């Protein structure tokens, strides 16, 4: 499924007291650390994700993988596009970085996903209805910010 055709879910953003190159480095390191936990690969297997292990170049480049995600595009210091698919959803997570002033950057994370069928609808309700997605995105952005600052 093309990323542009996936329905928009939400966007989260944070301002970081660091240059975009430092944020880019922290983004890659934080994703590696977050997805290297034993639960990430186990969860990817449980839901039948296409990509279940971390592989490929680091920092992330097109074709690199994390459990549950494949890097669809990587423009260092500007944009990282992650895409994935499993039994209940096709999804994308798009990170965009922008310079907003000396030593200041904005990092935005846009989520898109389709949840086909009854099982997909239940999965969406579990993911979005409980607030779990929002909590996870806020934690991820906070970790990236801490790593860059």
Question: Mind explaining what this structure looks like?
Answer:
The protein is an alpha+beta fold. It has one domain: START domain (Alpha-D-Glucose-1,6-Bisphosphate, Chain A, domain 4, 2-Layer Sandwich). The chain contains 4 helices and 6 strands. It has helices spanning about 20-35, 40-45, 115-130, 130-149, and strands at about 10-15, 65, 70-75, 80-85, 90-100, 105-115. A 6-stranded antiparallel beta sheet has the order 1-6-5-4-3-2. Strand 3 and strand 4 form a beta hairpin. Helix 1 (about 20-35) packs across helix 4. The protein is globular and about 50 Å long. It starts with 7 loop residues before the first strand and ends with a helix. The model has no long low-confidence stretch (mean pLDDT about 95).
Annotate the secondary structure layout:
Elements: E1 8-16, H1 20-35, H2 38-46, E2 65-66, E3 69-75, E4 79-86, E5 89-101, E6 104-114, H3 117-129, H4 132-148
Protein name: DUF2867 domain-containing protein
